[in-house]
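Per reviewer request, we include the raw input and output of the structure prediction for the construct analysed in the revised manuscript.
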Amino acid sequence: MIGTRTWAIPEGYIPEESTGPEPEMESHETLCVLNAGDEEATLEITVYFSDRDPVGPYEKTVPARRTSHFRFNDFDEPEPIPTGADFATVIESDVPVVCQHTRLDSRQAENALLSTMAYPGE
């Protein structure tokens, strides 16, 4: 079994502007999750801000032996994540998973894409 049950992404920021066709080139933050196990993963995601209390949990699922990508731009419940604000996340899963963070910043025509592994807890 690969992965762990707790992950942290200390860096988050959804740019307020985008260039290019949507939704493909819309500026966004994405949580990429690999569930290589034989059971569905249930995730609880808590979002932390620099200027207010945390929000969450946002609940997501990843089927067994699958990968899922979740755009933070699309998180609605319990509330949308604001654009133009710094944030960080803690992901807790009921089964071991592997998490990665990706950002597309398309504020300029010369787009920037960054990706990094989340920090494994436990």
